[in-house]
């Protein structure tokens, strides 16, 4: 699978090594999400994770499914993920370079997107493309930063400035209600909308939804 040209590739390639060493801001919240997702995965499921970054979450979750394909648009991210996989082999896990909006031709029982939906180029069109990889009745689990819930000074001033100097990628700005509405427009049945953070205001919304 080869990733097409993508406006964010250069940014993520450049920061990949630093990203791999950055600590998780809310370790307890991250563990809460992992436990929640692990409880929903089964040994007879094929799992696709998009926007997998350097693969840390995939390595934690891969043993819960039958086959686990983790993809990211940035080759440098996948290179680091494969290094981790060599050091910690997981037979069910495979890492590939791919754009989330151009998913594999085959279908999966579970689709995972952690800290990825707000980085898609267009919410509705990108979700529609992404969901082509999910079987009817399949489970879509996402954890998404609702950037629109941040201080307006950040979204209107700090983020555009950071993008201008190459310190941040393009992001979609929405709140939980707008994200939920977008999922429902795609015909998804929402089973849970949760927040797992343990430190301060948590803008990362976990949505568990099922494809009709």
Main sheet: strands, sense, barrel: 7 strands, mixed
The averaged pLDDT comes out at: 94
CATH class: Alpha Beta
Percent range for helical residues? 25-40%
Q: Within the CATH hierarchy, at the fold level, what is the topology?
A: Rossmann fold
Task: Compute the number of strand runs.
Answer: 7
| Number of helices, where a helix is a run of at least 4 consecutive DSSP H or I residues | 7
- Cα Rg: 16 Å
Helix/sheet category: alpha/beta
- Within CATH, the superfamily carries the name Vaccinia Virus protein VP39
Give the topology string: H per helix, E per strand.
Answer: HHEHEHEEHEHHEE
CA distance, first residue to last residue: 27 Å
Order of neighbouring strands in the sheet with most strands = 3-2-1-4-5-7-6
Spell out the blueprint of helices and strands.
Layout: H1 9-21, H2 27-38, E1 46-50, H3 56-61, E2 67-72, H4 75-87, E3 93-97, E4 108-114, H5 123-130, E5 134-145, H6 152-164, H7 176-185, E6 188-194, E7 204-211
Parallel strand pairs: 1-2, 1-4, 2-3, 4-5
Antiparallel strand pairs: 5-7, 6-7
List keywords for this structure.
212 residues, alpha/beta, Rossmann fold, seven-stranded mixed β-sheet, 7 helices, 7 strands, 35% helix, globular, disordered N terminus
């Amino acid at each position: 699978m080869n990733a097409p040209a993508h406006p964010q590739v250069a940014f993520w390639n450049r920061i990949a090594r630093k990203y791999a060493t950055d600590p998780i801001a809310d370790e307890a919240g991250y563990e809460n999400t992992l436990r929640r997702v692990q409880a929903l995965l089964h040994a007879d499921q094929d799992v696709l994770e998009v926007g997998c970054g350097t693969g840390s979450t995939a390595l934690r979750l891969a043993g819960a499914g039958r086959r686990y394909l983790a993809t990211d648009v940035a080759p440098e991210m996948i290179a680091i993920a494969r290094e981790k996989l060599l050091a910690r082999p997981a037979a069910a896990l495979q890492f590939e370079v791919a754009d989330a909006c151009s998913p594999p031709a085959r279908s999966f029982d579970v689709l995972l997107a952690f800290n990825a939906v707000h980085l898609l180029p267009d919410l509705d069109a990108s979700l529609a493309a992404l969901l082509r990889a999910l079987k009817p009745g399949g489970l879509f689990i996402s954890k998404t930063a609702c950037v629109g819930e941040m201080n307006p000074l950040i979204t209107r001033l700090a983020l555009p400035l950071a993008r201008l100097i190459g310190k941040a990628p393009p992001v979609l700005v929405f709140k939980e209600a707008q994200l939920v509405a977008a999922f429902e427009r795609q015909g998804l049945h929402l089973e849970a909308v949760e927040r797992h953070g343990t430190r301060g205001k948590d803008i990362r919304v976990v949505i568990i939804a099922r494809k009709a």
